Amino acid sequence: MANEPVRVPQPFRLREDAKEWFKALYEKDFHIGFDAFYFCFMAGIATGNKAQTPNSAAPELIPYFPVPYASRKQLLLALFLTQELEDLGIEMGEKADVHAKIKELLEPNSSGHNLSEEGVREFNKYAHGGFEVLRDEWFDDRPRSLETFLRTFKQELDGAISKRQGLKA
């Protein structure tokens, strides 16, 4: 095992149309590409929306959680795993199934983001699906200022979370 080659982690990917949609924020407020990815991912997780996007339409962004997000890596991974288990109908009490799915999606000894190849593909699908939610459901037009974007984003995120909690009750 000590002689295993070090694998370069698969990268997070951000859709080209998302980069264009967030253009005004990139010009003024976003400091790294992962900022847009984060908002897309959170919208996807909150709504449970995933979308398959070909790699040709979603170029490589970064193969790890960048410094401003590194302290939140465990939280983002936990949100991801919780959503994946929910999507599959696996209850937390089903320990063998939970363990098997986590083993499929995570690679704890890898560098970067600790996701397996399948895990990063699924993680990216939430960002791709979340962008569709932002563009098609939560906003009438692309964002022009961070303040307005954040206000609407928080309202919609809170609404999506409340709606999902209501469905579970």
List the defining traits of the structure above:
globular, 169 residues, mainly alpha, 2 strands
Briefly, what is this?
Helices cover about 60% and strands about 5% of the residues.
Structure description:
By secondary structure, the chain is an all-alpha fold. 60% of the residues lie in helices and 3% in strands. The chain is built from eight helices and two strands. Strands 1-2 form a two-stranded antiparallel ribbon. Helix 3 packs across helix 7. The longest helix is centred in the last third of the chain and has 23 residues. The model has no long low-confidence stretch (mean pLDDT 90).
Please tell me how large the radius of gyration is.
16 Å
Average pLDDT figure: 90
Helix content: 55-70%
Written as H for each helix and E for each strand, in order along the chain, the element string is: EHHHEHHHHH
For the termini, the CA-CA separation is: 47 Å
Ranges where pLDDT stays below 50 over 5 or more residues in a row are: none
Main beta sheet, described? 2 strands, antiparallel
Q: Which class best fits the helix and strand makeup? A: mainly alpha
Shape: globular
Number of contiguous helices: 8
- Total number of beta strands: 2
Q: What fraction strand? A: under 5%
Largest sheet: spatial strand order: 1-2
Oligomer: single chain
